[in-house]
């Protein structure tokens, strides 16, 4: 394995490990399926070993795209056998699609995994069997994710199950080009669902949580205003083929929630989650989580939309609105849109 490359924006840091099928002691039956896992990282030293080690026996190849970690994440990933690339961060959708387009994925299947997520052994076994048995019509696999917070599984408040499309046949899947709340879409075929333990369990503290969600709020507010004012022509049909749950949530957000007066949506959403959906049964960790994620974060998105719209109020035409929103948010909207169109071009 090579050391970190120093020249250029993108640099492969470690050669991909040889396919496990060549060395599996039990032959083809014991070999990992033809699957590549893609993980995006930035300062994920608390999580990266758990994430990569959990893919043992399931994936032939792990690709990590790191955006300049300074805590040893990239080095640790390479030590664990992952193929590591370094690339400047724009947003999740841009980084992940770059991996799909440039990591030379040649396995039959591809999977998306966040660095702070992990699989239980029964899910690994179930996925191995499903990948072996899948007929040609099966092009995507969804799984249900648990969310753990302050040491507790958040079972209520509509947080479980969260059904996510995470595996797809290589070449048929892409990621929506949005600033926030992006989903994998698959253009054809049939999706199946596999049971097993799939957990989002971030080990960082509440300072990290609130800082991360502050960034999320800016990006979600940008997306909301792009949609509201039709600032860019859609690169693709954004509702093409994600899970039904994801489609319903986005439709509700665009058609109803984002049209409510400032603050009404977050308050109503929190009360619905905490009382009607029994979030209060999640104990003290649940109170902290549902309030921060269900009210504080949603109110912050509303507040940023309001702030940004004040700055757009006297803008003349879409071009000026785009320029102002770029300055207000600190995100280069034109560059992201141009890159998304370039990737989508035949």
Account of the 3D structure:
With 346 residues, the protein is an alpha/beta fold. The chain has 2 domains: 11-201, Spore Coat Polysaccharide Biosynthesis Protein SpsA, Chain A; 206-344, no CATH class. 41% of the residues lie in helices and 18% in strands. It has helices at 48-53, 73-79, 92-102, 121-133, 206-229, 244-255, 264-276, 283-312, 317-329, 333-344; strands at residues 11-12, 35-41, 61-66, 83-86, 109-112, 117-119, 138-149, 152-153, 162-169, 173-175, 184-186, 190-193, 198-201. The strands form 2 sheets. Strands 1, 2, 3, 4, 5, 6, 7, 8, 9, 12 and 13 form an 11-stranded mixed beta sheet that branches. Strands 10-11 form a two-stranded antiparallel ribbon. Helix 7 (264-276) packs antiparallel against helix 8 (283-312). The longest helix is centred in the last third of the chain and has 30 residues, at 283-312. The protein starts with 10 loop residues before the first strand and ends with a helix. 35% of the residues are buried. Mean pLDDT is 89; it is low at 1-26.
